[in-house]
Amino acid sequence: MTPPNTPQLADPTDPFTPPSADEARAQRVPASLFRIAERHAATDEQRRRQAHPHVLGPHEAIRLVSFLLSGAALVDDGEDEVDRADITAALTLIPLARGEMDELEVGLLEMARGRGMTWPEIAFGLGLQTPQAARQRYERLASRTERADT
Fold first, then answer.
1. Is the pLDDT at 23 greater than 90, yes or no?
2. pLDDT band at residue 4, thresholds of 50, 70 and 90?
3. Within a 10 A sphere around the Cβ of 123, how many other Cβ atoms?
4. I want to staple 86 with a disulfide (CB 3.0 to 4.6 A). Which of 44, 82, 104, 139 is the partner?
C-alpha cells in the first residue's frame, strides 16, 4: 500500500501515458538527498566539506557532487567515485536549491528595504544596471516564491 500524500506516477505499464516529470522529481528528491549523504557525507571528515556538517541539504549535496566531479574535493579512500546516478540525483535537486535561493534572495531584499536601503543601492549590490531592474527582480522572485508557498 502506498503511504498517503505520496505522489503517484502514471501507470508504467501504459505505453500511451507519459510519466509526469514533476511527480517523478518529487519522488526522487528524498532519495537523492539520502543517496548523496550516504555515499559522500557518511563520515565526519566527509561532512566537513560542506557548509552544514550534520545536515546535508540540497545545495550542499549539489555542491559536493560538483566538487567531487571537478576535483575540487577528493574522494576518500574506500569512498565510491561519483557515478551517473549521483549526477542524476544532484540534477534532481537543482530546482529545490534554486527555490531555496529565491526565498533567501527575497528575504534578503525585504530585509535590505526594511533597513532603509534604496533600490539604487540594491541594484548595485545585485550587479544590476538600474533600480527598476532590481525592483522588477524582487517582484518576480516574490511572486514566484508566493506561488511555491501556497
1. no
2. very low
3. 18
4. 82
pTM over 0.70, yes/no: no
pLDDT band at 104 (very low <50, low <70, confident <90, very high): very high
Contact in structure between 102 and 114 (CB atoms under 8 Å): no
**Using CB atoms within 10 A of its CB, is residue 29 exposed (0-12), middle (13-18) or buried (19+)?**
middle
How many whole angstroms separate alpha carbon 72 and alpha carbon 64? 9
User: Looking at residues 45-65, what average pLDDT do you find?
Assistant: 80
Neighbours of 77 (CB within 10 A): 5
Residue listed under C-alpha cell 506561488: 147
Nine-digit cell at 38? 550516504
Closest by alpha carbon to 70, among 48, 45, 89, 87? 87
Quick one: three-class SS letters along 47-83? HCCCCCCCCCCHHHHHHHHHHHHHCCCCCCCCCCCCC
- The alpha carbon dihedral of 102, 103, 106, 108 has a sign of negative
Residue 85 and residue 76: Cα distance in Å, rounded?
A: 19
